[in-house]
């Protein structure tokens, strides 16, 4: 069991989605991956605005799935980007990548267990 | 729910969209999904959802812009918009509501909260829909009412200020919105050429005025045309109105009858401001006060039809108004007032138009208040008889038909003399004969004069000399009222008519039971003094109207003749 996911919330989601719960988890896995690629590409291109929008979106989906810590790290990165603090971005970006990986594993585990 | 409400869910995040749609569907709504701003607008236009969940930050057209378009395109309908946002800054959230958002929902989405918000907004929508329906209903009722009022106004206009108001000696001002203030102005001439004017002010305005005006006009024109006296017309009008009008509704009225031949005005005022009789030479004003209750209040048994008669010389003016003028308020709220009205009337110089001055002053007083919808003013001027002649109704000699020779005798005893007026009936009989119609006016005038002489001077024994002075007038009419109650005697009319191919002749003999008078001496006196036939037995007037005039017996019998010949002009 990981604390990076809010299990109470996930239980509610399961009740809500019923047989669509798996689909939701799959969608998150796909989406979060695609969203992170967007963030990385934006950083490569030096486009802080695009980076900000993409990480904002990742933040939203992550909080909806109950990944509270990940949502917080996304928020930090978003703030840095909107303030234009490029020098602090790489480290924040690395943290997001790391936490995202953990969250995806946890979600994958839940998905497999159904 | 009979109607499945549609909700538009617009969020560019697939995960968030799935989640929201699931929550919304669980609450029983039908869901339409959109993946970005442009898609959201397109789906809104296609599906016209009742509520919208809108992500604030979307690529392309963002949520705020979409909200703006949705609100605009909804027109009068209320389409609640809930912004979906993880924006935590207060002013960003405030902006969400300013651009037309009705609420916001933060991520992570909480089912319970969203459900509560959807319900609250749905309740607001329902209230809004009810209000729209009620507003539309009120609008329909209003349009209906306006239609009815316009119909009533059309009827009222044809009836309520009509008749001879274009005659040269009448000037008037009546609002085109008279139906809404209930004012009525009628004018007509009786067969003798007397001018009858009725000014009325109905309580209740609007439709009540329209309903009351019709029978009032019918009675006024019908009875005036047949030669009934003002008192008789007022009695009948009162009777009719007290039946028709609802309880608490009545008609304040003034009626005046101008006799051009005698230079007198007979009046009755029930509830209107006093009429002002402005006498030309002395510039004195006689106020014709209201001494009766308005029409429609008393039953027939208690109605008082007593009129007053006052002398009115050529050039004298009579001004009447309803209380709209008296109460007209300026911007400071001050009423125009009857004192001001009186002052203006009194201080107008000879030759000035009192009417124009009053009109100007009232409008000046009103200023820019625009409150001229209750101003009714009428001025009648006494003119010499020649100026007031009735137009000829038809060429003499072109009427044919009817009996060739006939006699008629009609006698009234004491009770009839007290209560009945024989003139309208006799007039009706006479105008049935086509040959007599061209002279109907003259005949009526003469009959009226002879009858009043026979009744007042003959049977009641009143002294005609009393009518020479203004104060004598009042005394005369008071004495007349007293004598009416105790009179005894008769008046008889004898008609004799002969017609042949060349023409015809009508002779009328009026006999009364009185002592008569020394007619030989009186005729000499009048001719010598050269006085106009203002009072006395009006012999000069009679001579002008008939072919011949002959007194007989002790002066209680008089014969007049009318004749005509049939040559074509």
Keyword list:
heterodimer; A: 114 residues; mainly alpha; 5 helices; 0% strand; B: 569 residues; alpha+beta; six-stranded mixed β-sheet; five-stranded parallel β-sheet; 41% helix
In short:
The complex is a heterodimer of chains A (114) and B (569). Chain A is mostly helical and 114 residues long.
Strand content of chain B: 15-25%
Count of helical regions of chain B: 17
Q: What is the rounded distance between the termini of chain A?
A: 15 Å
Q: Using a beta-carbon cutoff below 8 angstroms, give the protein chain pair with the largest interface and the number of residues from each chain.
A: A-B, 22 and 17 residues
Mean of the pLDDT scores of chain A? Answer: 91
Distance between the termini of chain B: 92 Å
Uncertain segments of chain A are none
CA gyration radius of chain B, whole angstroms = 39 Å
Which sequence of SSEs, written as H and E, runs from N to C of chain A?
HHHHH
Q: What is the oligomer described by this structure? A: heterodimer
Largest sheet strand order of chain B: 6-8-9-10-11-14
């Amino acid at each position: 069991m990981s604390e990076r996911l809010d299990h109470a919330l996930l239980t509610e989601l399961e009740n809500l989605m019923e047989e669509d719960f798996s689909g939701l988890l799959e969608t998150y896995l796909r989406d979060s991956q695609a969203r992170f690629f967007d963030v990385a590409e934006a950083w490569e291109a030096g486009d802080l605005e695009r980076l900000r929008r993409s990480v904002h979106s990742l933040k939203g989906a992550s909080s909806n799935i109950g990944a509270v810590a990940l949502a917080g790290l996304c928020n930090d990165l978003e703030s840095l980007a909107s303030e234009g603090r490029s020098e602090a971005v790489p480290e924040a970006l690395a943290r997001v990548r790391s936490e995202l990986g953990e969250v995806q594993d946890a979600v994958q585990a839940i998905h497999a267990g159904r | 729910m009979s109607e499945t409400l549609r909700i538009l869910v617009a969020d560019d995040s697939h995960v968030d969209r799935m989640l929201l749609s699931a929550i919304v569907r669980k609450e029983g709504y039908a869901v339409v999904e959109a993946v970005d701003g442009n898609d959201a607008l397109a789906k809104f236009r296609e599906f016209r959802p009742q509520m919208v969940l809108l992500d604030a930050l979307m690529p392309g057209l963002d949520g705020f812009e979409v909200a703006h378009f949705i609100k605009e395109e909804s027109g009068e309908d209320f389409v609640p918009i809930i912004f979906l946002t993880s924006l935590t800054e207060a002013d960003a959230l405030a902006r969400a509501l300013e651009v037309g958002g009705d609420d916001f929902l933060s991520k992570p989405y909480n089912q319970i909260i969203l459900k509560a918000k959807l319900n609250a907004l749905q309740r607001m929508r329902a209230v809004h829909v009810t209000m729209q329906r009620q507003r539309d209903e009120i609008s329909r009722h209003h349009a209906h009412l306006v239609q009815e009022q316009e119909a009533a106004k059309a009827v009222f206009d044809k009836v309520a200020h009509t008749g001879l108001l274009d005659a040269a000696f009448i000037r008037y001002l009546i609002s085109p919105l008279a139906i809404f203030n209930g004012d009525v102005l009628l004018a007509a001439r009786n067969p003798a050429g007397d001018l009858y004017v009725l000014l009325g002010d109905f309580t209740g305005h609007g439709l009540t005025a329209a309903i009351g005006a019709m029978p009032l006009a019918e009675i006024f024109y019908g009875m005036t045309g047949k030669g009934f006296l003002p008192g008789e017309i007022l009695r009948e009008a009162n009777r009719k109105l007290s039946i028709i009008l609802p309880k608490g509704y009545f008609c304040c009225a003034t009626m005046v009858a101008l006799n051009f031949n005698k230079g007198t005005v007979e009046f009755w005022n029930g509830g209107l401001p006093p009429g002002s009789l402005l006498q030309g030479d002395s510039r004195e004003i006689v106020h014709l006060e209201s001494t009766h209750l308005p029409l429609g209040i008393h039953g027939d048994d208690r109605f008082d039809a007593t009129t007053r008669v006052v002398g009115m010389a050529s050039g004298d003016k009579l001004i009447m108004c309803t209380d709209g003028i008296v109460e007209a308020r300026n911007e400071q709220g001050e009423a125009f007032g009857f004192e001001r009205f009186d002052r203006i009337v009194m201080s107008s110089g000879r030759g000035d138009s009192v009417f124009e001055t009053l009109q100007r002053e009232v409008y000046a007083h009103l200023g820019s208040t625009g409150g001229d919808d209750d101003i009714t003013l009428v001025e009648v001027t006494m003119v010499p008889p020649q100026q007031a002649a009735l137009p000829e109704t038809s060429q003499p000699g072109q009427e044919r038909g009817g009996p060739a020779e006939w006699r008629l005798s009609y006698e009234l005893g004491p009770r009839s003399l007290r209560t009945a007026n024989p003139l309208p009936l006799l007039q009706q009989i006479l105008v049935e004969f086509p040959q007599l119609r061209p002279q109907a006016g003259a005949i009526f005038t003469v009959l009226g004069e002879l009858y009043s002489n026979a009744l007042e001077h003959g049977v009641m024994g009143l002294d005609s000399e009393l009518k020479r002075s203004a104060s004598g007038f009042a005394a005369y009419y008071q004495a007349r009222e007293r004598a009416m109650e105790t009179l005894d005697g008769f008046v008889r009319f004898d008609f004799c008519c002969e017609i042949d191919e060349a023409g015809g002749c009508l002779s009328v003999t009026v006999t009364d039971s009185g002592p008569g008078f020394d007619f030989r001496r009186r005729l000499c006196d009048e001719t010598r003094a050269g006085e106009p036939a203002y009072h006395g037995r009006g012999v000069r007037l009679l001579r002008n109207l008939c072919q011949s005039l002959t007194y007989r017996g002790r002066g209680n019998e008089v014969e007049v003749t009318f004749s005509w010949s049939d040559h074509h002009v």
